[in-house]
Amino acid sequence: MRRTPCGRCVVAAVMALVSADSRIAELLAELQRLLGHTQEERSRSEHNLINIQKTHERMQTENKISPYYRTKLRGLYTTAKADAEAECNILRKALDKIAEIKSLLEERRIAAKIAGIYSDAEPPRKTMRRGVLMTLLQQSAMTLPLWIGKPGDKYEVDDIDEEGKERHTLSRRRVIPLPQWKANPETDPEALFQREQLVLALYPQTTCFYRALIHAPPQRPQDDYSVLFEDTSYADGYSPPLNVAQRYVVACKETKKK
Predict the structure, then answer these.
(1) CA 7, CA 116: separation in Å to the nearest integer?
(2) Which domain holds residue 112?
(3) Residue 171 lies in a domain
(4) What is the mean pLDDT of the chain?
(5) What is the mean pLDDT of residues 240-247?
(6) Number of structural domains found in the chain
(7) More confident residue, 49 or 6
(8) Structural domain contains residue 170
(9) Is the pTM of this model over 0.85?
């Protein structure tokens, strides 16, 4: 028998919906403003980068590095660094707004369910074919934002098999978070798993994570990990190398088998 939410709960849910809609509208306006500032910063820094390029061209023509050019380049690079940091700070703020919008949208979905705007009998999401689901997983991995060195952000975990149902509440000890950022091997190699490190990785064409060894870490930001899955059907106990996106490779707390 399906429980009907009390009138007070429905009123509270409707108020939460209105509040969420209002806040989302504010955040979208702030996001638009931040994106405008990003373009302004990029246009300003572009002029300085052109000056750096022209200065290098003049130095090559004269075939010498005079004290004048050395001083000029030092000033230009200092300005370029400050411009890049300013743009980076704006982009961080924009990402924070996007994360808050996503959180509010989930709160809105739950409030709408309580208010009776849609019911369990009519879930908001339709069951997807497996092929479509695999494509979405790959697209999610490809669009994962690049980590730029600001640790300490919180994680959110969704159960992809619980379509249209409430989320489960688990203790932090029982959850292994998926990465929110993609690590750049050229600037942050220490953020990547290294060769022969034990991990849990998403087996290709499934939604299950299995124990595996890192065969080779990514060499470029867009590259995948090459991993060896534990498989007793092979003589050495591991499968041939398979590619898995950064988003779907996580730490394994168990010790490596000897």
Answers:
(1) 11
(2) 1-123
(3) no
(4) 82
(5) 95
(6) 2
(7) 49
(8) no
(9) no
**What pLDDT, on the 0 to 100 scale, is given for residue 115?**
67
- Specify whether 145 is located in the same domain as 93: no
Tokens for 246?
């950064």
Across 81-103, average pLDDT: 88
33-48 burial, b at 16+ Cβ within 10 Å, e below that, comes to: ebeebbeebeeebeeb
**Radius of gyration of the chain, Cα coordinates, nearest whole angstrom:** 25
- On whether residue 81 sits in a domain, the answer given is yes
Q: Which residue did the predictor score with more confidence, 256 or 109?
A: 109
Rounded to 10°, the helix 67-115/7-62 angle is 160
Residue 53 covered by a domain: yes
Whether residue 104 is found in the same domain as residue 195: no
**CA-to-CA distance for 217 and 193, rounded, in angstroms?**
7
96 with 201, same domain: the answer is no
Q: CATH code at 239?
A: 2.30.30.140
